[in-house]
Structure formats: C-alpha cells, structure tokens
Amino acid sequence: MLPQSNQSASKRPDSGFRWSRIATIATREFRQTVFTKGFIFGAVLFPLVMFAVIGVMPFLMSSSPVPVSGTLVVADEDGSVARAMQKLFDQYKTGNNANSAQAIQDAFAAGQAGDVSSLQSLVDLPRSIDVIVRRVALDTDLAAVREEVQRGELLALIEIPASLLGANPSTVTDIVLLVPTTSPAKTTALFSRVSREATVIARVERTGMDLAQARALVREPKADTARLTKEGAQAKEHTEMRFLIPAGFMMLMWIATFTSANQLLTTTIEEKSSKVIEVLLSAVSPLELLSGKIVGQSLVSLLMLSTYGAAGIAGLAFMTMLDILPLSTLVLFLVWFLLAYFMVASIMAAVGSAVSDLREAQSLVQLPMIIMIIPLLLWMPITENPTGWPATIASFIPLAGPFVMVLRTTAAVEPISTWQIAIALIVNAGTTIALVWIASRIFRVGVLMQGKPPTPRELLRWARTR
Amino acid sequence: MSQVSSSSLPEPAVHLRGVNKRFGATAAVVNLDLCVPRGALVGLLGPNGAGKSTAIRMIMSLIRQDSGELRVLGGDALDMKDRIGYLPEERGVYRRMRVGEFLMYLGRLKGLPRQGLANCVERWLERIELPGVFRSRCQELSKGMQQKVQFIGAVLHEPDLIVLDEPFSGLDPLNARVLISVVQELHREGRTIFLSTHQMSQAEQLCQQVILINRGEKILDSTIREVTQRFSPWAIEVEPLASLPATHDVLAAIDGVESTHASDDGHSLTLNIDSTHDLQVVMNRAVALVPCRRIEITRVSLDDVFVRLVTEHGGHARQPARGAA
After folding, report:
1. Is residue B224 within 8 Å of residue B209, measured between CB atoms?
2. Residue B44 — φ and ψ, nearest 5°?
3. Which of A48, A69, A251, A408 is 20 to 30 A distant from A37 in Cα terms?
C-alpha cells in the first residue's frame, strides 16, 4: 500500500498560473537567504550593533576614566611654557574641565562645539589628571632626564625650542615630546595638546595682550545658514548632512538592491548547475518560478533596507535632525527602490538563467553595471545642484534613474518639479515592465540550455522566441 | 495548441502526432507519433542520444516542439502540472536543504495542502526504504539515495501520469528492485506510467508496451507480446543429458533442421528450423531421439531486438548539438 496524501492530484483543479506557487517559491527564497549566519550577521545584527554602539558611545566615554599622574619635565627658554602647562593641568585637575564628557554634551547642545576633530580631542581628555610640571633650562644636559623617561619614572620630556616663542615664531620648528614606550595614546595626545596650547599662551603673554581677548579676536564666527524657499520660508541648512544623507540613501539602495539581485543570480545559476531547475519546472511555469524568486529576494532586500534604514533614522532622531527627512521623501524612496530592485533583479535573473557559472555572468552584466554606476559618479554634482540639467537628464536614463532620483529627492531643499518626477516614473516604470518581460522570455529558454554562454544577440533572439 | 482529434474515449494520457524538434542542424525528434493509453505502463527505449529525453521534455512542456501536435491528459501539460509527476534524467536537489523540507516544498508546489504533508513525506521515505533521513541535508545522502528522494518528489502528489526518465540508472540492484516494485504498485493503482530506459531487461519486466526510437525516429511501437512473437527466431535450444559431440549429429539430422549452433560453454545446441516445418513436431522428434536436460523454443530478448533494430536503422552515432539539457 502506497502512502496517500490528504488530497490526490485528480481532485485538485487544473491550473495554469497560480499565485500560491509564487508565494511558496518566494517563501523558500526568503528563508534560504535570510536564515543563514552570514545574512543574520551582515544585514541584521551588524546595523543593530552599529547603532547600539553609536548610542552608548557617550556613556562608554564618560565612564572610562584614564588617570594621569606623575611628573613631566619641560625644557624651555624662560619657564613661561612650563608655567602655562602647570596652570592648564591644574585647571583640569581642579574642575573647570573635570567632567569632560559633560562638557562635550553641553557644548554640543549649545552648538558651540568646533569641528569634529576638536570635538574628538575633547572626548579623549582623561578625567583624572594630577601632573607636576618640572621646568629645566634649554641648555641643560638632558641625557639624565631622557633616561628617567625611558625607565618610566617621568611622564614625559617636552622641549620647547626658543624659536617658537619669538615675536615671529618659527613655522618649521616643532615641539619635541618624548614619552616612555608604555605611555597610553590618550595621555600622549594630552601632553601634545597641552604643550601646544601652553606655547601659544606663552607667546601671547610675551606680547602683553590679554589671552581671552586674543582668543576672541582670532576665533572665526560660525555661519548659521538657512535657505529661503520660493514661498519665503526659511529651511534650516545642515551643510554636512546635505551631502551625507543623499549619499547614504543611495548607497543603502545600492547595497539592498545589489545584494538581493546578486543572490538571485547566484541561486539561479546554482539551481541550473545542480539540475534541480528541471524538477521545479515540472511543477511550475518559468514565469511562476521567476516571479517567486524575484518576489522572495525583494523581501530580503526590504528587510535589509528596513534594518539599515531604521538604524539611520534612529541616528537622525538621536541628533534631532529628523526634520530633514519628510515622510514624502521616504515614500518616494520606497517607490524608487522597488523600481531599481525589479530592474536589476530582472537582469540578474535573466543572466543567471543563461549561464552556467558566475564567470560567464560577469561579461553579460557589464553593460547594465556601467549604466548603474552613473549615479555614483555624479553623486557630488547632483547633490550640489539637484535641480540642474545634468541631474534632470540623468533622472530619465533607464536603470540609473531611480538612484539619481533618490539623490535628488534627498538633496533638494525644494521639492523636485512634479513633471520631472512623473517623467522619471514613467520612463523607469516602463523600463521595469519591459525588463521583467524580457527576463521572463530569456529565463524560459535559458534555464534549460547548456553549453557555451549566449552572446547578447542570442539573448535577444531568445527573448523573441515564441 | 492544436487539437489532436480522437475518436476513442477516454483520450490517451499522452498523444503525439508528427512532432518534430531540431537543435540547430541536428534533428532531435523526427515526425514522432506516440500514444500512451490511460492506465498503461509504457517504456520509451532507445540508445543514448536517440531523442528520448527531448521527447519527454516536450511532453512535459519544458521545451516546445517545432511542429506537430501534442496533448497530455487531454490538454496542454502546462495546465496539468499538478496531475503529472516527473523524474528528469539529470538528478537535482537543493544540496543544503533538508530532505523533508525539500520534498514538502515540491509537494506544496504541486498543490498539496500543508496539513499532513510532513507525515505523508515520512511514510514515503519509509516505503522507499529511506527511513530517518527526513532531517538530513540532501548533500549528506549518496547519489542513489538522492535519486530515490527525487523519485518521491515525482510521485508524492499522486499524479495521474508519471513520467520517469531513466529511473533506474545509477541504482544498485537492491534499490532498483525497490523502485520497480513501487512503480508496479503505482501502475496497479491505475496511474499511467511512461518511462524511458536503455536497460531492456527492466523494460521487459515492467512494460506492457514499448516504443523504440533511434536518431529521433520511432522504429518500433508494440506490446511486449507482439515484439516476442514478431522477432522470435524459428529455433529450438536443446541441452542434452549426454555430451554435445555425441548427440550433435543426431540432432542435426532431424528433418527440418537447417543449421546448428553450439553455445559458448558447449552445453547446449541451437537448432535453426526451416520455417515450413512445425516447431512442435521438430521438438517432439528431438526429445524422442536424445534424452534432454532442457529443451525449449528459443525466446527473443528485448536486448536482441534493440540491437537488431538500431543496427538496421544505421546505428546510434549522432553529432552532438548545443541545445536544451
């Protein structure tokens, strides 16, 4: 007696194209791709960990004291630098900057923090500092002092050449800072920074000027930029973000699209080379198989987009900059992403069905890849002028269009003209439909073909085959 | 697809008329007429490269014929996928997938409900003598075991028509015997089975009807009985109790014996009889003259018929062509 299923074939209705088959194939594609260690780590855990690290970084920094305690020797012309250094160390010690992490947060919230590097230098400041500065004359024999540094008995030996303190300080001479090999990098950076700052203080004092006044005079004021829209409203300008966000969105779209499309290429080649394709095609039509694979990988792609996108949006929220990403931009991004994905996926599936290994596929995907590199090459000019003619024309280039439109949409302060969005949508949606159709024709013929890889002309002939 | 007219009911499970298929300059199938009645067990025979797999792929609608008419279960195979089971010649599984998961996936694609599917797969694995591999990965199985798994994939959904392309090749005799018994059982259940093979003994053992093709053309389409009758030589094989040299002259002198041929081992003698004489009479005379351990009318083997027909048809060598796998 042979095993029986719950429903024999003759009781099932005859069927042509069936959505349940597509759902079954899509589910398998999704599960086989997503439930792997590589994907879970690369697409889910990595962005989550990255975001978690960014989120807890300030707390980690504030809770990691690096104590600095001991004596350092400063050799200078008249002791002015040594005195200034001792004063700076005492200031840190007695409180003005005792809680550096708090100082950073305060400065950041008030918009007073300088550039990123100076912010970083503040972050690096140790919290517990107890340093005694011992001054020696420049002409002293420093051999004994060097030995003490070597043995770690001194924190450092700092030589300030006299030429650095004259009325016209040398621009070619440097401070000499010698530290023991065991000196932590943060401590060394602290000594470097304090010695440089003390040198400047000594110079200013020699001129008889007030230090605070001198600092105020040379400090460059910040430019608080805003864009005036045609309607007269002011839009807050985030200069760095205006370049970073479009690039971020485009790269996110690239990574999500190409990771899944590449997976589609690989699995199709694998199914073909392992001969399982013939078993599948005895159960489903080529169009059902292709549709299921594309839909399954699109879900993978959307999952990647969600994890990385959520991490990015959370980052913006953390920086209170969510206002630069209106909901309409996110909706449009999703539309452009889907168009880009279906275009690239169709190409990869068609190529995968036509070849026997990845090497053969490379030559066939070269041309579309070149077109899709256009947005990467035009990233800066498009971001700089998202409504200019190069950006406008690039939006209408099939394949490149969705990526360019994402750049433009996220870079533009004012909305892109509706007619430009409409034309770009029509061109790229039309291209997507055409590519999916052509891919289904090529796929149908290609998956059962063996032998040398087809030429582009042969692929076109397959597409026309009845 | 064009209609194939049929005067008898029910319509055959597979019906091809004047089907042609070329791959470049090579004619893979030439003007092929073929009819597999419902409930029959039919073998498609032929040497390597004869066009068997191409014919089967056309029946499965995996590739389209260039011309001719083709109907499967009364319609287009594309619309009947859930009612057809197919074991392709080139075996393929998802190597990293688990056996049970793979078979359930195929079952789902064939329209089986999720409920009870795992149990059904387990029972099939036991029936085919592969218990305990449900959770094994396909790549952990031997080739023969993978082939049996794929066989389950072809029959799991209880199809009306089962198409098997070289189902026993690569299997050891024990596993081949298991599959043969399952095929016979499926046939007894009333399912139509169409299988290709170049192992004549298995075709002889299993099939009611055989179709022989060579160079893409059909050169034989008969029941096994008809083949036996049509190609049986007019001969009697005798194994005397005494030594052959001592009895040879007596047997050769029987009226109607045209010529004799001793077997390689020297134990038996084949008597070729003049077709105007009655075999039974000659046989009775031989038994009367020489005490025999064995005497029988020589039976033709399908193997002999195969070799003879293919040779008459110009051998089986053909230029390879790029085309469907």
Report:
1. yes
2. -105, 115
3. A251
Cα separation, A183 vs A369, whole angstroms: 50
Burial zone of A426 (CB within 10 Å; 0-12 exposed, 13-18 middle, 19+ buried):
exposed
Which residues from B are below 8 Å from A278, CB to CB?
62, 86, 88, 90, 92, 325
**What DSSP line would sit under A386-398, residue for residue?**
TTSHHHHHHHTST
- The 10s digit of each residue's pLDDT in A171-184 is 778 899 999 988 88
Please report residues of A whose CB lies closer than 8 A to that of B109: 21, 24-25, 280, 283-284
Phi, psi of A71 (to 5 degrees): -120, 140
* Chain A partners within 8 Å of B129 (Cβ): none
In the three-class reduction of DSSP (H, G, I as helix; E, B as strand; rest coil), residue A299 is classed as: helix
CA–CA gap between residue A452 and residue B68 (Å, rounded): 29
- Write the single-letter amino acid at B144: G
Output the pTM of the full model. Answer: 0.71
The predicted-structure confidence for B171-211, as pLDDT tens digits, reads as follows: 898 999 999 999 999 999 999 999 998 788 888 888 989 99
Structure ipTM: 0.79
Q: How do the domains of chain A map onto residue ranges?
A: 68-214, 237-464
Q: Do A15 and B150 touch (CB under 8 A)?
A: no
DSSP for A428-452, please give it. HHHHHHHHHHHHHHHHHHHTTB-SS
> For A278, which of B90, B94, B113 is closest by C-beta distance?
B90
Q: Which residue has the tokens 């002889």?
A: B204
Query: Which among B149, B189, B158 is positioned nearest to B84, based on CA atoms?
Result: B158
The total of other beta-carbon atoms located within 10 Å of residue A197's CB is 14
Which residue of chain A has the CA closest to B92?
A276
- Domains delineated in chain B: 14-229 (3.40.50.300), 233-298 (3.30.70.100)
CATH of domain A68-214: 3.40.190
| Rounded-to-integer distance, Cα A73 and Cα A390, Å | 61
Q: Which residues lie below 8 Å from residue A137, measured CB to CB, with a gap of 6+?
A: A75
CB contact B120 to A (< 8 Å):
yes
Over the stretch A374-387, which tens digit does the pLDDT of each residue have? 888 888 888 888 88
- Residues in contact with A20: Cβ distance below 8 Å, sequence separation at least 6, in sequence order: B111
Find the angle CA(A217)-CA(A219)-CA(A221) to the nearest 5 degrees.
110
Distance CA A122, CA A124 (A): 5
d(CA A443, CA A452): 16
